[in-house]
Amino acid sequence: MPAKIPATVVTGFLGSGKTTLIRHMLQNAEGRRIALIINEFGDLGVDGDILKGCGDETCTDDDVMELSNGCICCTVAEDFIPTMEKLLDRPNPPDHIVIETSGLALPQPLVRAFNWPGISTRVTVDGVVTVVDGKAVSLGQFAHNVAAVDAQRAMDENLDHETPLSELFEDQIACADMIVVNKADLLGADAAAALAARLKSDSRDGVQVVTATMGALPVGVLLGQNAAAESSLDQRHEVHHHHHHDDEDGEDHDHEHEHGHDEFESFVLNLPELTDPAAFSARVVDTIKAHDILRLKGFAAVQGKPMRLTLQAVGPRIDTYFDRPIAANETRETRLVVIGQAGLDRAAIEKALA
């Protein structure tokens, strides 16, 4: 029997840096043929387009497959499994499959799906990589049972002291084989190392914790963990949601939804091309702060520029770069996805950015 193809699941909260980490991995794949499955949350597959723009010969456009539903565990039979089978059935299948989950996705149901009959003998979960925003966690956002962070959070009246997002963070940490403390440059070496040590002490035995800046980790560190995570689900306990699965029969499953999907919303804004990218970036930062937006990302055309500008913003930090030429048949416009907790004032946000 041929060896199972390894698959790595990359999870983490919105804005932790999953896409940046994967993009770096593709650009430094060292000859590995890597296929991607992007589980995007929102109306526009921005992450898929960002990754397709990497231009690496080891990852062509055909190697990026996108799931339209942000909740993999709700669409296993009709969406995820057929996508996996399509990859596995190729005459020249990939060396490795990387799955980027939505920022809201629970990793355990996805790992459980690898026990389905159609794929269980052909692919294995090489490892679950949970990416965390080191700066945010150090400030007490989505932290897990750390007295110092709890004290810091208690002093901030603006923070929700009991949030479902903290439970989702716990689920992502509980499922991890590797935790990547990203944005370590914003912490400094000592603080990053202390946070990594703390996360390691809160994790089960054998979990690796590494620090990174801009998701820059060697491909050999991320891939090749040989965890077979689908066979150790009992160790990857889920904190707060209850799914009733019969993992082996492939039948419909009874779902008790506690995903927190209703607590979030996303929408797409179409704006004209930009005349002053720096001024627009400043408006984005101000708008995110004023409207408590979790994430804003997308693409823009800039007057007089042939290249497309990519924007990714989380909190006060915004990253922009030109990724590829704008095709002749593409509309020169700005197209953004806004993601936040339910109740976003779309009209006010659009007015602020326009």
Which SSEs are present, and which pair or pack?
Layout: E1 5-12, H1 18-27, E2 34-39, H2 46-52, E3 64-67, H3 76-88, E4 96-100, H4 107-113, E5 123-133, H5 134-138, H6 147-154, H7 164-175, E6 178-182, H8 189-202, E7 208-211, H9 219-222, E8 242-244, E9 254-256, E10 264-271, H10 277-291, E11 293-301, E12 307-314, E13 317-325, E14 334-341, H11 346-353
Parallel strand pairs: 1-4, 1-5, 2-3, 2-4, 5-6, 6-7
Antiparallel strand pairs: 8-9, 10-14, 11-12, 11-14, 12-13
Write a structural description:
This protein has 354 residues and is α/β, with parallel strands linked by helices. It has two domains: 5-256, 3-Layer(aba) Sandwich (Rossmann fold); 261-353, Hypothetical Protein Yjia, Chain: A,domain 2 (2-Layer Sandwich), CATH 3.30.1220.10. Helix content is 29%, strand content 26%. It is built from eleven helices and 14 strands. The strands form three sheets. The protein has a seven-stranded parallel β-sheet with strand order 3-2-4-1-5-6-7, with helices on both faces. Strands 10-14-11-12-13 form a five-stranded antiparallel β-sheet, with helices on one face. A two-stranded antiparallel sheet has the order 8-9. β6, α8 and β7 form a beta-alpha-beta unit. The longest helix is centred in the last third of the chain and has 15 residues, at 277-291. It is globular, with a radius of gyration of 20 Å. The relative contact order is 0.15. Mean pLDDT is 76; it is low at 143-163 and 240-262.
